[in-house]
Amino acid sequence: MTRISLCLIAKNEAANLRRLFDSARGAADEIVLVDTGSADGTVALAQTLGAIVHRFEWRDDFAAAKNAAIARASGEWALMLDADMEVAAGGAEKIRRAAESGSAGSYYLNIHSPRADGVTTEIISQPWLFKRAPGVEFIGRVHEDILPSLIARKMPPQMTDIVVMHFGYMTDAAMAARGERDMRILESQADPNDTLSQYYLARAYVRVGRKMEALKKLVWVITSPSAERRMKANAHTMLINLSPGLESREATLRRVEDATRAFPGDRMIWSAAANVYVQLDRVELAVPAMERALGLPRQSAAEGAVLDRSDEHLRLQLAECLTYLGRLPEALNHFHRVLDDGLRTPDVYCSFGLAHSLMGNHAEAEMAFDTALGIDPSHADAHRQLGFLCAETNRPAQALTHFNIAVAAGHNDPDLLQAIRYVKAQTQTSQNGHA
């Protein structure tokens, strides 16, 4: 049987190791962990869980640390993962079948990294399942890459449907910390004429808030003849997301036009374009952009990372835009599809209820708002919307109850405060009339 070594580097990853190890048990015959200076019990826990642990003095070089892990493995194959990853269900068996099939010397894994916004996922295919062989090694101190050595050894990777979840970008704080780390390393060694390193430096600048510097580097990458097509598409996506806060309205619209013209078949560019149109109050342009995105396939990531939004999140945004434009039957159709696809959060039910309310479907609207409160009894917007509905249907006492909860939760927009004054005045007038 083919022997596979799970290889990883780690520092202070005790909270994540068990999840990774458990998910990879069916694939790995041994686990080799190179520790770069943990102080949280990572080493002891890894050893308890059966890993072989080696110490490595950290020197701002991810490739060197990963190569040390590969060198200490005994398996014919290496499975390189990060400590904050998890092999998706069924993936361990697929990893073993791929290694034992003999059809290739390396394979791509599809790394899915959910972002802090809860909507976007970064997807990249990494050739991290490979035969151990002389010269097969990572290069690059940050955003390290093993593909050049696999190509040089005539071991080009094959695509697979193996999914690995990566949880390292789930919070804004984690994104910023990684950005600071990458920026420090890249600024010390990045070649100013290398499009890949400058692209990654732009990404790091975005994460730490140095947005104008990021914008300038992205423009350079886009205009560079040596940049790969996927990299240029990603640079366009980041650029049009950055532009509204940094450039004029006209310049931003030109950025969107340039991106969609250069990549008319790129799903994420159209999705980003739709977001920008919404920010610029051009909702009538956002709707066809979202429809275009929904009609395009999700990209393969073999050339580099792609940013992806699921159909249900795109469709939700489309439904909300259609509601804004008063195209309510279309909006409700899309809301039903979103709910059928399983996206059932309080925010979704609030938007769904608002569309029904604007249609005059009061019973359906109230049911939607009640469902939102059933999921989260303190959901402020559900109380706000239900208050408006109760006021409209002549239930002032209930309206005030919901309004007060919304205000206590921080909602104090002018429309809400005016509605409260109106309902109170109506209640007082009614009481005076009865007196």
Summarize the structure.
The chain has 435 residues and is α/β, with parallel strands linked by helices. The protein has helices at 14-24, 42-48, 62-71, 91-101, 147-152, 172-189, 195-208, 211-223, 229-246, 249-262, 267-279, 283-294, 311-324, 328-340, 346-359, 362-375, 380-392, 396-408, 414-434; strands spanning 4-10, 30-35, 52-55, 77-80, 85-87, 106-114, 120-131, 163-166, 306-309.
Q: What are the segments in which pLDDT stays under 50 over at least 5 consecutive residues?
A: none
How many runs of DSSP E, i.e. beta strands?
A: 9
Order of helices and strands: EHEHEHEEHEEHEHHHHHHHEHHHHHHH
The chain-level mean pLDDT equals 93
Strand content: 5-15%
How would you describe this structure to a colleague?
This protein is an alpha/beta fold. It folds into 3 domains: 4-101 and 128-148, Alpha-Beta Complex (Spore Coat Polysaccharide Biosynthesis Protein SpsA, Chain A), CATH 3.90.550; 172-310, Tetratricopeptide repeat domain (Serine Threonine Protein Phosphatase 5, Tetratricopeptide repeat), CATH 1.25.40.10; 344-434, Serine Threonine Protein Phosphatase 5, Tetratricopeptide repeat, CATH 1.25.40. It contains 19 helices and 9 strands. Strands 1, 2, 3, 4, 5, 6, 7, 8 and 9 form a 9-stranded mixed sheet that branches. Strand 6 and strand 7 (120-131) form a beta hairpin. Helix 1 runs parallel beside helix 2, helix 7 packs antiparallel against helix 8 and helix 11 (267-279) runs antiparallel to helix 12. The termini are far apart.
